[in-house]
Amino acid sequence: xxEYRGENRIVLxxxxxxxxxxxxxxxxxxxxxxxxxxxxxxxxDDVLNLVTADPDPALWAPGQWVDVQGEVRSYNNxxxxxxxxxxTVLVRSARPAAExxxxxxxTLAGALCRRPTARRTPLGREICDLxxxxxxxxxxxxxxxxxxxxSLAAHCAGLDVGDRLRLEGRLQSRQYHxxxxxxxVERTAFEISVMSLLDSxxxxxxxxxxxxxxxxxxxxxxxxxxxxxxx
Length: 231
Known about the structure:
Largest sheet: 12 strands, mixed
CATH superfamily of the largest domain: Nucleic acid-binding proteins
Low-confidence stretches: 201-208, 210-218, 220-231
Radius of gyration: 18 Å
Distance between the termini: 20 Å
Shape: globular
């Protein structure tokens, strides 16, 4: 796969659930982590893990609404417990929010690093799982699981490893149960729900089919469908 300049921008508005807790130290900078609750229009909440170098207790007070700009990051969990791929949001800037309503907008550009997997929900709607490699400026990459629905899923199913993709979507969380050694274990999956594909006439054609009625129907299924395990 040749070198490809990535794009990774997320805008969130949500409510902090607890004060920042120490996470790690990198290049002399201390980082902290906290969960942010981001409501959807459907009434379901996404709870996203933020990483910040600014633990300002006033900004991140539990219950405070915050506007966040940053990047979606991934790393491999080698502990043997929980998800193999950990997804967080690296905060670049944050400020108190003027409005108490959720916002979740994400733009990504990268290259597919695994063949897309097409499947159907229990209600028969087409979906397609993607793994997008998004290069950072200094040589590393984030590997981000994405899911497309309906006509977008049909288009994405025809892509191949190495194909470049630019998309808009939202970062979502979902709780589910997995049977491990005979015991039901609750886990959280994080994925990017693809809302539109950018920079291609063919992608634009697929997007036109993704009308408001289709989005509303798919959103209801997103809130209830069983996710695949993270890679």
